[in-house]
Fold this protein.
Amino acid sequence: MDKNTFENIYNQIYDEIYPQAKTIKRGLLYKTIQIIFNEEESKTQNNTLVLCNSIGIKSSDNREHDYKTLEGLVEVIENEHPFIRDWKKLRPIADNISRMTNKPEEEKEMQEIKWIIVGACVLVGLYFCAQYIKKIQSRKSELKLAEQENKSPSYPSIPADLCLVVPGKIACDFRAGSSLSVKDVTYLIDNTSYFLCGRLEEIDPIEKKLTLADEYVSPDSEQKVYIRINISSNAQDLVNKKTIYILKRDLPTMASFTLKKIACLRSLRGFEAFNRI
């Protein structure tokens, strides 16, 4: 694409926008960007808002503020590409405006608007460059995350049984075979005096050593009651843990909890493997 093609594109934009731009006293740069994005009648105006908010361009800005914004743009371009000063010389376009004190007001205003439209065209292009960079960075982040996940060891989801000892007045509200919520399990953990969490094959032989009895539990009873809860999945972080804090913190929210067994304790014989609060 040669110079004439670039100039032709700009002239078409200028001819289209100038009649409307010359009537705008405030927010000319904002409005020009909005027009180029074709978002004048859009309810969302996503592109305009993203670009203008990131640079600090407002619909209430006066011409002086617009100039300062574009002056910063020129400084960046010249600092990164010094040869532009010797080639196209963007800065004199703006500098000449301040020297036009003896020119007719209409001609001066035309030059002001021309400079703002040029700047708006560049800024809109900059926006799409920023979007491109954002997509690249997002893609790199996704790839990095995928690599980390592939490197991280994966542990199989396992079920487990949680055994608790609670007062009768707490246990009386629960029945064997019922489903429990995370809130229910947390409530029971908060009121336990002994606890143990392990795999099914670990809990069965320990439970056989306990002295259990199927007796009525009174709502005001302080009798110790044994409760065994099955955690259907994702219980690997609970197995053999020693504190109730970790039990509550790591309860799997996506698992199902079933009260497998509830029975009165005749003694604390066989509780050597349990953790005592």
